[in-house]
Amino acid sequence: MTTKLPIRRFLIVMAIALLVGCAAILYRGWGKHNVETDIQNTFFPLAMALRSYQADYRSPAENLRRLVPHYISRIPSSRFADAIECSVIDDGREWQLSIRSRAFAQQRLYLYRSTQKLTPDEAERVLEPTPHGMLFVLRER
Question: Phi/psi at 118 (nearest 5 deg)?
């Protein structure tokens, strides 16, 4: 009977350790999901405003101020976004919305583009594919 008690304690401790480990993994995943969802929900309307502007004027907006108030009521912000930048790419034919975030240990760059093309360097830095193909999540250099 005395030999069963240490085995039982060992099994209880191992079960608790396993539960704590699983909880930590779930918590980290939930936090990541929360950040990603916030950035997508906050900046997707801005990307759609850039797309609408380009459709109306047949060229991309030179800056985000051009979108207010006709395409979007205000430029959005997020507690997870450190910097937001809009730029014209591909010889003035396309636009790119860049959102930098340090919400994770490794800084991320979220790119909304009017084109789905990536440079070879960017393709190597893609962290996650997104379902709609307009947003790219890259590892920051």
Answer: -125, 150
Distance separating alpha carbons of residues 43 and 85, to the nearest angstrom: 11
pLDDT in tens, 69-83: 999 999 999 999 999
Spatial distance between the Cα atoms of 107 and 32, rounded to a whole number of angstroms:
13
Biggest CA-to-CA distance, the chain = 84
95 within 8 A of 60, measured Cβ to Cβ: yes
Query: Cβ(54)–Cβ(114) under 8 Å?
Result: yes
Q: How many whole angstroms separate alpha carbon 43 and alpha carbon 99?
A: 9
d(CA 26, CA 20): 10
Q: DSSP code of 92? A: T
